[in-house]
C-alpha cells in the first residue's frame, strides 16, 4: 500500500530508479562532455533562464571567441553582448560575464574557484550556478535546484512548503556517492521528458510511490 511505504524506501527508490532510467534516456549536450571548469561555468551561466536549444546556438561561438578566463576578462563588453544576444538579457549577462572573469583573474589566478563561498562572491553567480559548477566541474556531491527540480520534488515527495535551501538539504543525502552529475542531470532530463508541465504519469517509472500521482490522480 502506498500509505505504508516508508519515506526511506521512497527516497531510495527515487535515486535508484532515476539513475537506472537516466542511463538509457540521457540527453547528449556538448557541455555535458566538457571537463574544463571554465567551459562548464560558461554553459551554466548561459543556461540560466534559457532553453537548451538557444544555448546550443551560441555556446560554441562564445568559447571560440573567449577560450579562457583571461580573454573573457579583457573582452569588449559590447562584443560579449553581440555574441549572446540570441539568449536575451544580453546586456546584463555580458556585464556579469566580464566582471566575473575579471574577479577570477584578480582573486583566483585566472581559475574557477572550487569553494562555494568563493563562487558565490563572483558577479552573477547564485546558488544554482555555484552548485552546478561544484557538481559538474569538481565532482562534488551537491544537489542543484531550479524550477525543473522543484517541480519534480514537489510532486513526487510533496515538498510543497520547502524553500530551495531546504530542498537541497533533503536531496543531498539521496545523491549516490561520487555520482551527483548523473543524479542532477537525471532529474533535469526526467523533468523535461516525463515529469513535465503536463506530466506523463501513466508511463512514469516513479508513479507507484509518487505523492502527486497517488493523491491527486488516484485519490489515495
Ligand atoms: Fe511526475 Fe507523474 Fe511521475 Fe509523479 S508520477 S513523478 S507527477 S510524472
List the helices and strands and how they pair.
Elements: H1 7-25, H2 37-47, H3 52-65, H4 69-74, H5 77-84, H6 90-108, H7 116-121, H8 127-136, H9 147-156, H10 164-171, H11 180-193, H12 211-217
Helix pairs in contact: 1-11, 2-3, 2-8, 5-6, 9-11
Iron/sulfur cluster (SF4) binds next to helix 9 and helix 12.
Detailed description of the structure:
With 220 residues, the chain is mainly α. It has twelve helices and no strands. It is elongated. The model has no long low-confidence stretch (mean pLDDT 93). It binds iron/sulfur cluster.
Q: Mind describing the biggest β-sheet? A: none
Helix share bin? 55-70%
Query: Which geometry do the CA atoms define?
Result: elongated
Structural class, by secondary structure, is: mainly alpha
Secondary-structure element order, as H and E?
Answer: HHHHHHHHHHHH
Give average pLDDT, whole number: 93
Bound molecules: iron/sulfur cluster
Number of strands: 0
Rg, please?
19 Å
Low-confidence stretches: none
Strand content: under 5%
Tell me the quaternary state.
Answer: single chain
Separate helix tally: 12
Distance between the termini: 10 Å
Amino acid at each position: 500500500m502506498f500509505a505504508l511505504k516508508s519515506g526511506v524506501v521512497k527516497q531510495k527508490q527515487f535515486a535508484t530508479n532515476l539513475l537506472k532510467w537516466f542511463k538509457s534516456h540521457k540527453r547528449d549536450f556538448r557541455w555535458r562532455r566538457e571537463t574544463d571548469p571554465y567551459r562548464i561555468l560558461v554553459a551554466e551561466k548561459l543556461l540560466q533562464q534559457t532553453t537548451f536549444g538557444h544555448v546550443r546556438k551560441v555556446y560554441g561561438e562564445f568559447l571560440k571567441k573567449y577560450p579562457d578566463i583571461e580573454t573573457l576578462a579583457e573582452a569588449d563588453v559590447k562584443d560579449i553582448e553581440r555574441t549572446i544576444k540570441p539568449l536575451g538579457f544580453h546586456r546584463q549577462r555580458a556585464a556579469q560575464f566580464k566582471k566575473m572573469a575579471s574577479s577570477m583573474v584578480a582573486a583566483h589566478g585566472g581559475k574557477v574557484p572550487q569553494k562555494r563561498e568563493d563562487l558565490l562572491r563572483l558577479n552573477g553567480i547564485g546558488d544554482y550556478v555555484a552548485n552546478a559548477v561544484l557538481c559538474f566541474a569538481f565532482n562534488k556531491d551537491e544537489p542543484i535546484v531550479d524550477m525543473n527540480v522543484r517541480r519534480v520534488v514537489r510532486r513526487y515527495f510533496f515538498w510543497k512548503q520547502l524553500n530551495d535551501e531546504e530542498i537541497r538539504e533533503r536531496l543531498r543525502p539521496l545523491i549516490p556517492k561520487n555520482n551527483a552529475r548523473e543524479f542532477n542531470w537525471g532529474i533535469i532530463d526526467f523533468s523535461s521528458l516525463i515529469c513535465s508541465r503536463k506530466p506523463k504519469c501513466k508511463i512514469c517509472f516513479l508513479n507507484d510511490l509518487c505523492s502527486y500521482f497517488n493523491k491527486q490522480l488516484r485519490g489515495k
